[in-house]
Specification:
The protein is mainly α and 325 residues long. The protein has one domain. Helices cover 72% and strands 3% of the residues. The strands form two sheets. A two-stranded antiparallel sheet has the order 1-4. Helix 8 packs antiparallel against helix 12.
Length: 325
Amino acid sequence: MFFTLAFFSLLIERLCGYPQWLVRAIGHPVIWIGTMIGWLDGKLNRAGQSFARRKLMGVVALVSILGSVVFVTLGISWALGTSLFALAILAVIASSLTAQKSLEDHVLAVANALDAEGLTAGRKAVSMIVGRDPDQLDEPAVCRAAIESLAENFSDGITAPALWLGIGGLAGGAAYKAANTADSMIGHRSERHEAFGWAAARFDDLINLPASRLTALLFVLSCFFVPGASAKDAWKTVWRDAKKHRSPNAGWPEAAMAGALGLALAGPRVYGGTLVPDHFMGAGGRREATPTDIRKALKLARFADILMIALFGLLALTGLLIARA
């Protein structure tokens, strides 16, 4: 039933997204989780504490966040039961955990802004999806940032929540989303969060490991459906460059995308005025990325999405046949 839930939730979110009127009316699960994380950060992460104490409080915060989310979602699942009606309601709820439509819309907005209004508009559009300093980016850097964000966020915003929905149902998908949101908010290496966010960052690395590898594979396979994309170069780049990335997971989808498009992605970047060193994914590829490359990357991502939905549909059908055997 869990893979069936993941399959239908992906279809619903692909077609409908999460409506803005609903965000305005009741918010979004990420907003609710983020509010809880912010409250725990304020209560437990105190500057006067030792490094070890703040690290322990970060573990307490992560366990509290995950425990609360799992408790609520298990309660919802139990209350609804196992009927087809319950599956439909759970699929609608679970569709809020993936970001197929919104990710595509935000990345496409960067290409459209560059084409229609130029660099300033492109910088503003890309600032909505990346954390690096947009004023430091020329047009090729804006394009690379959009493509890198698409690759990484496809993994942790689409593949990973869908995978954990398939493994653990609504509770599994929601717990993943809570952990990933915690990593985004407190898992970075700032003075305030280096100790407190340690648990969130390490746990996020662990739970994203299978999805990042699956996403890379999906990008490689998608090359067969996109003219000009190279499955051979994507595969070769993954095995050569993915493990060199500063992140244990982001390098896999970024390397696959870089090889597929013949680009050199990642490398040194500026965050908050600080140059952060990193290896290039697709070393030797072009650095002069264009809006056309963004659109080609989006085509790859769309086919990867179709392949993933088909995979979950096949797993759901297999589970159904086994249950009836």
